[in-house]
Amino acid sequence: MQLLYIAMEFQVEDLYNLLVGRTSTAIGRRLLRNFKAHGLDISQEQWAVLVELWRENGQIQQELAVKTYKDKPSITRLIDKLEAQGLVRRHTDEGDRRIKRVFLTEKGKALEKDAMEMAQKTLDEAIRGIDADKILICREVLYQVYKNLEESE
User: Fold this and answer.
1) Which mean pLDDT values do the consecutive 10-residue runs of the chain (153 residues) have?
2) Rounded distance, CA 111 to CA 122, Å?
3) CB 108: neighbour CB atoms within 10 A?
4) Whose CB among 46, 142, 148, 150 lies 3.0–4.6 Å from 42's, allowing a Cys bridge?
């Protein structure tokens, strides 16, 4: 009951802006700045696609769209840009010619170590001075918010 009272003290806009607006934007800006300072020419959205490919190379575009929460036109544009940068390439699926699989190039594979180091640096900067138990609580709360919204769709 006390948590409900605390949440009600905020204006809806303040709580929404804090949870998804300002914090996400600040982390994204810092990540981009860290990438650029390390000579990495990728955006936060491109990094999200690359992370999925580093986990499992050769995924279909639709899988990448779902995993990165992007719609079809957005994921197509992201992959187009990654392809133009020489980081990925598309191949037609052998079993179904309508499906395009996305594979990392050697250049894309080589980017993983530096990009992940910069992502970790960004995370370290974001959580500096915050007790580990509070971070775990925050993660649990945000995950529950996510689950609540996913279950209602």
Assistant:
1) 49 64 88 96 95 97 94 95 98 89 98 96 95 91 85 70
2) 16
3) 24
4) 46
Domain positions in the chain are 1-40+111-153, 41-107
CA distances from 88 to 15, 22, 69, 70, 152 (A): 38, 31, 19, 18, 35
pTM for the structure as a whole = 0.82
Query: Rounded distance, CA 115 to CA 47, Å?
Result: 8
Contacts of 30 (CB under 8 A, 6+ apart): 122, 125, 126
Q: Ramachandran region of residue 8, left (φ > 0), alpha (ψ -120 to 50) or beta?
A: alpha
